Amino acid sequence: MIFNRETRDSAAAIPAPLLAWYDQNKREMAWRDAHNSYYTWVSEIMLQQTRVEAVRAYFDRFIAALPTLRDLAACDEETLLKLWEGLGYYNRARNLQKAAKLVVERHGGELPRDYEQLLALPGIGEYTAGAIASIAYGIPAPCVDGNVMRVLSRVTANCADITLPAVKRDYQALARELIPAGRAGDFNQALMELGALVCLPNGLPLCGGCPLAELCAAHRAGCELDYPVKPPKPERRIEEKTVCVLVCGELVYLQKRPEGGLLAGLWEFWNRPGHLSRDELCRELERDGLAVRSMHTLKKAKHIFTHIEWRMQGYLAYAEQPIPLPGGEWISLPQLREGHALPGALRAYSADLERWVQSP
DNA sequence: AAGACGGGGGG
DNA sequence: CCCCCAGTCTT
Length: 360
What we know:
Helices cover 45% and strands 14% of the residues. It is built from 16 helices and 8 strands. The protein has helices spanning 5-11, 15-25, 37-47, 52-65, 69-74, 77-84, 91-107, 115-119, 126-137, 146-155, 165-178, 184-197, 217-220, 278-287, 333-339, 347-358, and strands at 237-248, 251-256, 267-268, 270-273, 292-297, 301-304, 308-319, 328-332. The structure holds a DNA duplex (11 and 11 nucleotides).
């Protein structure tokens, strides 16, 4: 256990000032205080690895399209992915629907009011199970995310590596001890809200407005920036790609990515590994049986994922005929906009496509 | 235990 | 341009 008795005793002073601060400073969120466990669940899945401000619009649109858990369970995957388009980590959406189907089959369409049963559902790990249990049902389960570990590591000036599973367990144990009777959901959200609004990463915590400043060991020692402790990040590999926006009249060529791996199941433009010259690209397209009427070079684009960097050379080609190519389809633009989810990585080229269609 | 899996914000 | 953020599932 990384927290000794003395540290845990002084941490007991956290809840009262934290809850008082939360009651005055919590942000409005459409999914808060709605007393709807489906809203809580959808929002918590969206909030994994994602900031509140980015989630708001996605949440509103998602709930408008799929107002109940049964609607989610019944919707088709294209609709689901379109609602998730641009949010990232697309397996979150797939698992959300898998779990919704299980809840309809096994739990009569209502999320179980039980931490272990929540944890057993796809896409719900320890954090999310704790969040739903405490926020939607008032169950005194801890919910420890990166915000919580940043706040608690600073308050306790703890230098254990927060990426280690054993260390996370100790933070969960500490957080569990601190939950005040009857206010589990508020306390958990208060810890995260403080991390998001005051106890900021990037080396600029706003300790002047922090309700915990006086009892924060890191602040009193003037070393807030030393916490939390994490190992150095791994290197990123670089992949060069050639992306060709293929157009024929009102049609554009799209292919569906494989069901597993990066950007699984999303749509993309014709592409090849490596940076191809105009001539190489023309030859490659002609090898697939496609006659090219004209070819335009688009700007290079870069997209950075967590562990991969795409360096893309773009082209836009007008095809003589919408010849079927292996693995893809010719789609009309309205059809693309309504029902085909493209990854954010290709945003530069889908914007080019929209521009060229308006003024070729 | 380590790697895969997106996208956004700030300096 | 660089940096940072960090839940869940798979292997």
